[in-house]
Amino acid sequence: MAGDFVPLTSREAASGLLGSISLTCWIFLLVPQLIENYRNGNAEAISLLFLFVWFLGDITNLAGSAWAGLVPVIVAIAIYFCLADGVLITQCLYYRVRNSRAAAHARHSSSTTTPEPTTPLLGRRRSDSLEGAGQRRRGSRQSYSALSGSQEQGQGQGQGPDGALAKLVEENRVGQGALLKNLSSVLAICVVGMAGWTVAWQTGVWKPAPLEGANGGVDMVPGAQVLGYISAVCYLGARLPQIYKNYCDKSCEGLSLLFFILSLMGNLSYGAGILFHSTEKNYVITNLPWLIGSLGTMVEDVTIFTQFRLYAFSESDDAAVA
Asked: Where is the composition biased (Low complexity) (predicted)?
């Protein structure tokens, strides 16, 4: 077997490693957001337009890959992307329909059940609480914070600063734990990706791609390249509705930060892997749609990271004031 190994240059090895890390990022990309939605019991934080446009980008990517006759593993990955998108979209629609029905039922029960003047206040409060069963967790948390703030004020002005300080310390502790968890996940993704490439190379499953011919960079089918550009436009436009929604809500609560970290890592390693393979003009032009789709969206991912940080500070300030 050793005599069958293809000698590798440092650039080609880097290209293979980066490509494998990118693939690992894409495989686990949607898992954090699926878990976040499950924990919250809703998917109100995600823009459905973001998901649908992204799904359209994956469909055109799959069509372009199949039309160009790319290697089976690339087509298989494109199919996986479409299936994973379908799972996330289905989950989001399920929670929206379920919560909408629950809220409608609560409103109907509240409107048809009119309390008598002699009904105890406790019963009225319970009936009123059912009406808000379908509201988002963020709204409930804000209401709870406001109630807690009023209670603290009633207990005396001397305890206000201590309570605010305790909240800030607790939030800082939680934030450090989340940071450690995300860093551990990123490190694990890199290790798995590099180990996967090493095994694939040693077993002969992975081999350096030629620069010319066999879809190596200069004979791409024109129609497939057009689909690649359409896919890139979809990827670039998909995050805009999410950025706008975050701006309107002034919050990123309900979104998984790790989801966007893996997206950034996947795009960066994918684009870098292409450029490490070759920077020849014809090769870059052929792969330009995929470079735009990967490296271009990194700017939008950084924008979402900024929103995470900005709105986290805003919520901390609100908690301190309360």
From this structure: 109-120
